[in-house]
Design goal:
This protein is an alpha+beta fold and about 110 residues long. It contains two helices and six strands. A four-stranded antiparallel sheet has the order 2-3-1-4. A two-stranded antiparallel sheet has the order 5-6. It is globular, with a radius of gyration of 15 Å. The chain starts with a strand and ends in an 8-residue tail after the last strand. The relative contact order is 0.25.
């Protein structure tokens, strides 16, 4: 776990619908972008949805552009935010398949 970046696509304090809408966004994002995890965050009084685990700002910006293409109505709301606890992804054998970091064998 390290400091990194996520892309925020939703933030609302609408008392009755914000939580429900945030979880709908999470589901939709994870279905559309299967290589990225979405997180629902509650920072009173706002419900937010943030996507990804990026170690570099530039990676998050590139992904924010992908989100804006997919969801043009929300393009003005999409921002890159710094996060203290990001779980970076690693890629195996030059593929686009993310994997968890592996512990090194110290024998």
């Amino acid at each position: 776990v390290a400091t990194g970046y996520r892309v925020q696509i939703y933030s609302s304090n609408a008392s009755r619908k914000a939580k429900e809408t945030a979880f709908e966004w999470k589901k939709n994002i994870e279905e559309a972008f299967t290589n990225h995890k979405a997180y629902v965050v509650y920072q009173a009084p706002f419900w937010k949805v943030r996507v990804g685990d990026f170690t570099h700002y530039a990676e998050a910006v590139l992904f924010s552009k992908e989100l804006a293409k997919k969801y043009p109505k929300e393009a003005g709301e999409i921002i890159v935010v710094k996060e203290k606890q990001v779980k970076p992804l690693y890629f195996k054998n030059d593929t686009n398949t993310p994997t968890e970091p592996q512990a090194e064998n110290t024998l």
